[in-house]
Design goal:
The protein is α+β, with helices and mostly antiparallel strands and about 140 residues long. Helices cover about 25% and strands about 40% of the residues. β3 and β4 form a beta hairpin.
């Protein structure tokens, strides 16, 4: 399984009244890394829509380990875990520049057939069909 990492610097407006990263922003960082991962493999959002499918998140869990403050640099990783059936796993970590683990994000996702409004039978199929580098996604 291939892992992809994107760097992010915590911005001041993302912090809360206590001066640390607002809890909802961790999910935004995770989402940003997922889309960057797809784009790195050659898949753009417009490509998915043209194929008639859209990624959906069915479940997300965030385990917070350390706080983040404005100006800190982090690396947000992402990897897809392929199994059998209509869903796939997403494993992500957020790590400070000094290597300190900050959060773990795990999710269950799938691809929605935008016409039928049901999950596609094999979520690997749209990824293989659209990726210029399927191996980058662990396919």
């Amino acid at each position: 399984m291939t892992e992809f990492t994107v760097p992010i610097t915590v911005r001041g407006y993302e912090t809360d009244s206590q001066g640390h990263l607002n809890q909802s922003v961790y999910l935004q960082y995770a989402e940003h890394a997922r889309w960057a991962y797809l784009e790195n493999a050659g898949i753009r959002q417009a490509d998915l829509l043209a194929k008639g499918v859209g990624p959906v998140v069915l479940e997300t869990t965030v385990r917070y380990k350390r706080e983040l403050r404005a100006g800190e640099d982090v690396a947000v990783s992402c990897r897809f875990v392929w199994g059998e059936g209509r869903t796939f796993g997403v494993e992500q970590s957020i790590v400070k520049a000094d290597g300190t683990p900050v959060a773990e994000v795990t999710a269950v996702g799938g691809f929605l057939d935008l016409s039928a409004r049901r999950l596609v039978a094999d979520p690997r199929e749209p990824m293989r069909a659209l990726a210029s580098d399927p191996a980058a996604l662990g396919l």
